[in-house]
Design goal:
Blueprint: E1 4-5, E2 11-15, H1 16-21, E3 27-32, E4 36-41, E5 46-48, E6 53-55, E7 58-62, E8 69-72, H2 75-85, E9 89-98, E10 113-123, H3 127-143, E11 149-154, H4 156-166, E12 172-174, E13 177-182, H5 190-193, E14 198-202
Parallel strand pairs: 4-7, 5-9, 8-13, 11-14
Antiparallel strand pairs: 1-2, 2-10, 3-4, 6-7, 9-10, 9-12, 11-13
């Protein structure tokens, strides 16, 4: 599978090697022989949520990336992250896998064979994407008011919809989500401790 761009530029899927070899506008890649790659981006336009990882060429580090699990500790940090989610292109590292998985077990991708890794971007400023994320974040906050919480934003269905229009076959997508964790200053945050304040919503195309 090669790089594709969906209609209206909502989703872009680029093979990892291609991304490192020919980074998109706003990105630059510095290669240190034997030490891997350092990827830089414009934080005013892009929200990169990719953890450091190792590839066949060594360690790959994305500067200015908080990683796939974003932690915020106060209202100012949350407001800043929310603004980024609803206005910038969001970049994630995902894997296309091959395996005999049921739909209910897809997010785990346990036992599947990874075919290739891809850098996937989704336009958080697209009206439909923005509306879905606003609604999901507002629902999360209203349902756990005053508590710490964790919300998983799942892009699997958006990616499957894109794949159905652009590639042959039906790969199983692994790591097609990211997490926002909010920590309140409550002294006894029992719902969070026991996992009751964990929320999940899906983003569709």
């Amino acid at each position: 599978m090669t790089s594709h761009t969906a209609s209206r530029g909502t989703i872009t899927v680029t093979g990892l090697e291609e991304f490192l070899r020919e980074p998109p506008a706003g990105f630059s890649v510095q290669e240190a022989p034997g030490a891997g790659h350092r990827v830089r981006s414009d934080p005013e336009k892009s929200l990169v949520l990719i953890d450091d990882f190792r590839s066949c060429r060594g360690r790959v580090v994305f500067d200015n990336s908080p990683g796939r699990k974003v932690k915020v500790h106060n209202l100012w940090q949350y407001t800043s992250m929310r603004k980024s989610l609803l206005s910038k292109r969001i970049y994630l590292l995902m894997s296309a896998c091959r395996g005999n998985l049921s739909a209910g077990n897809r997010k785990a991708a346990a036992g599947a064979t990874a075919l290739e890794r891809y850098v996937v971007s989704i336009d958080g400023g697209d009206p439909l994407i923005r509306w879905q994320m606003e609604r999901g974040l507002d629902w999360t906050i209203s349902s756990v008011a005053g508590e710490s919480y964790r919300v998983d934003i799942d892009l699997t269905e958006a990616l499957e919809s894109w794949a159905a229009e652009n590639i042959e076959g039906e790969p199983v997508w692994s790591d097609a989500s990211f997490t926002l964790k909010y920590y309140s200053d409550a002294l006894f945050d029992f719902p969070h401790w026991f996992g009751f304040s964990r929320r999940h919503f899906k983003v569709r195309r």
